[in-house]
Amino acid sequence: MATQQTSASPQKPNPSTAFAKVSGTLKSLNFSSADEVREFPNGRLELVRFGEAVVGRAILQPGWRWSKSVKEIAQTDSCEAPHFQYHVSGVLRIKMDDGTEIDCKPGDVSLVPPGHDAWVVGDEPVVIVDFQGMVDYAIQAHKH
Questions:
Q1: What's the whole-number mean pLDDT along residues 29-55?
Q2: Helical (H) or strand (E) element with 110
Q3: Would strands 53-60 and 116-121 be described as parallel, antiparallel, or unpaired?
Q4: Sheet strands (E) in 41-90
Q5: pTM listed for this prediction
Q6: Angle, CA 109 vertex, CA 59 and CA 71 arms, to 5°
Q7: What is the largest CA-CA distance in the chain?
Q8: Following DSSP, what letter does each residue of 84-105 receive, concatenated?
Q9: Could you read off the pLDDT of 10-34 as tens digits, one per residue?
Q10: What is the pLDDT of residue 4?
């Protein structure tokens, strides 16, 4: 199958719509003085809040696996939180419910939709900074 090429240059994003609108005052926060810390087997989550925005740093030790460490807390069959995350250290394997798998390594940025399991690969702790999906992560589910 042949591919079709065009001579048109790629369109540049519109600066007014390319990024989320940011408002408020200049602010810097540090995970060492997190607004909230959640601990679970083989892991820890530190949250900082910028108004409505929440950024989380997860530190996951060797042996951590979502289905073993967080599933009981979330009370779902797989992780239903979407993630947009930067991988600082370690290797995190992510397996979607459909069987698709990827390994995320230091320097990677991943977009992970709901419906997955994940685990630490190897002996190095995984550190990730997540810009979406951590606000309700590792909070006991409420049964109605």
A1: 94
A2: strand 109-112
A3: unpaired
A4: 43-50, 53-60, 83-89
A5: 0.80
A6: 45
A7: 58
A8: EEEEEESEEEEEETTS-EEEE-
A9: 556 555 554 556 677 899 999 999 9
A10: 42
Q: Indicate the burial class of 61 (C-beta count within 10 angstroms; 0-12, 13-18, 19 or more).
A: middle
Confidence of residue 2 (pLDDT cuts 50, 70, 90): very low
Q: Where residue 101 falls among pLDDT bands split at 50, 70, 90?
A: very high
Output b/e per residue, 24-59; b: 16+ Cβ within 10 A: eeeeeeebeebeeebebebbbbbbbeeeeebbbbbb
Residue from 74, 46, 79, 76 nearest 140 by CA: 74
* Contact indicator for 57, 31 with CB cutoff of 8 Å: yes
Produce one character per residue of 71-107: b if its CB has 16 or more CB atoms within 10 Å, e if not. eeebeeebbebebebbbbebbbbbbbeeeeeeebeee
Instruction: Give the β-pairing of 126-130 and 43-50.
Output: unpaired
Tokens found for residue 66: 């979502």
The residue written with tokens 């995320």 in the block is 104
